[in-house]
Design the sequence.
């Protein structure tokens, strides 16, 4: 199934979906492993490394958000792509500078069927998110 979206940061990535119902502070993700360390977060103990991360929005100050995502990228444990419901300026700028494909405004039907472990292709250059399995 293929869904229209809005490109925020250019690029194409394929991989496994990881869905968070909670907002994410990338500073509370261990850069050495990509594991979410925030207590009580629905992804606590799970790794975002190499995943296509689906989440509502970011949280935390601009410095910790940008640095957290940057540290993940330095350690090669950043998500492959970001699908965000409510983008904020800091994450948008960070994704563009770091070079992580980021999209928003994915069709509502996507959120009805997306689940952890699904395989997907995010093609922000052509404004498409495709669930491949």
Sequence:
């Amino acid at each position: 199934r293929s869904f229209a979206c809005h490109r925020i940061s250019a690029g194409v990535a394929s991989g496994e979906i990881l869905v968070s119902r909670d907002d994410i502070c990338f500073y509370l993700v261990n850069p050495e492993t990509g594991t979410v360390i925030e207590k009580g977060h629905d992804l606590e103990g799970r790794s975002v490394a190499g995943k296509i991360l689906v989440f509502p929005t970011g949280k935390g100050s601009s410095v910790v958000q940008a640095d957290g995502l940057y540290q993940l990228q330095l350690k090669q444990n950043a998500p492959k792509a970001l699908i965000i419901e409510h983008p904020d300026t800091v994450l948008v700028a960070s994704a563009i500078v770091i070079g992580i494909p980021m999209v928003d405004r994915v069709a509502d039907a996507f959120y009805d069927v997306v689940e952890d472990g699904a395989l997907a292709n995010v093609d922000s250059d052509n404004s498409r998110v495709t669930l491949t399995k």
Remarks:
- The first helix runs from residue 62 to 74.
- The chain has a mean pLDDT of 95.
- Residues 1 and 131 are 5 Å apart (CA to CA).
